[in-house]
Amino acid sequence: MRIAFLVAPEGVEQVELTEPWQAAVNAGHEPVLVSTDAGEIQAFDHLDKADTFTVDEVVGETSAASFGALVLPGGVANPDFLRTDEKAVAFAREFFDRGLPVAAICHAAWTLVEADVLRGRTLTSWPSVRTDIVNAGGTWVDAEVEVCEGGPNTLVTSRRPDDLKAFCATFVRVFSEAGA
Length: 180
Description:
6 helices
């Protein structure tokens, strides 16, 4: 399955990109780095610059129709940028409209808040995003990983990098079960 990894040109938490990416590869999937600009993205290790990664496809030039699922890595700046980009928000929303599974970790729920896809959904995130989720109509829980099937698609969420092992195992299983 082709899995879109949507990130901003800078600010993604590197470990929240690379560990899920490797989990997807290990499960036989094809991860695809999607961003708002062509070229490279700059990842971060918290507030310090980390590695750069080459963008495979650009939002606005690709569609959820060419993917089986979406992963939204976190980092504070990454989803904050994405939620201000109309094409990125529309791209994320399209996965919900098509009933395709989505996985989001840490602050990544901000993009989903902006996409207005959290009403009636139960999810987790970095604790500071809780109020935004509740204000967007979602129910926030403090859990290592949360799987919500109470909507048009399956949504897998986790709180932080410490949850990556559970996050990766869960989204790989959910994506595989979705048969996408």
